[in-house]
Amino acid sequence: MIKVIYRDVNEVKIKVLKKEDFREILKIQNILWIDVVNSDYEEIKLLAAYLNIKIPSKEEVEEIEISSRYWEEKDYIKINTYFLIEEKTQDLSINFVENESITFILRRNILISVRYKELTTFNEVLKKVIINPKMYKNGLYIFADILSIRIDKDADFLEKLTKEISKLSKYTIAGVDITEEIIETISSYEEINMTIRENLIDKQRVLSSLLKSYQIPNELKEEFRIMIKDVASLINYTSFNFDKLTYLQNTFLGLINLKQNRIIKVLTVISVLFAPATLIASIFGMNFPIPFGESVYSFFFAVLLILISMLFAYLYFKKLN
To answer: Would you say residue 267 lies in a domain?
Structure first.
């Protein structure tokens, strides 16, 4: 599906084009934004031919190296950047996330976005463009707003993750039994934090490149400078989360080791406690005559020795705490 957002006098209109209608895109005037959603390889190539530009397919986007995710030429800028996609999970109180590559092409003040998943950020920006079209002089301003809203959403999600990490730290105070699930939760949070950090570093790289571009107006560069500061502070926040998760993991593993050592200590004391009794029982169970072995009281004598040896061992270990 392809949405063409264009200006018609003082309002903004949307036209949805199917594959057989792509030729009409050449007739539409004052285009601001072409949003390509879930289009197949043939649709992408056909649209690229009509617009006389190269639009990468989904497979090509996934193979693009980090160093090539920003490309600028005389009359256009091509950007491949990450957007966080949330995935619901039953095991965690916070959604799992993955990075989805989105392609943006800025050409002659027109924004072309290529994506393969529905994202609320794009829907929010589209509503803003329709409600207040005067805010958006051209597609570059729409692109800047998409980045701004996405960074705000990343910040909200990072804040939510930080709160969940803080909940884990309360376990060290509350004396809750540390289970395997808690350790797995920490590992999951580390993975989520790593994904967010990778996403933010990618945006930082894109914003730095945009600040160097002569095709970006100074008004937008000021906005990008503010965004890059926000992104830098969020990256520092992910570092704080890593440190906290590492501390919690080491603390919980230490508590588990203490618990295991306590169990081993008890088992060791019990085994030593029964060692003299076992020795006495073994002696009286030997297959040869022993003193008092034939006596009527030999059984009671052996039991008494066993109890005395156990009591002595118990008192000795109790004195040693």
So the answer is: no
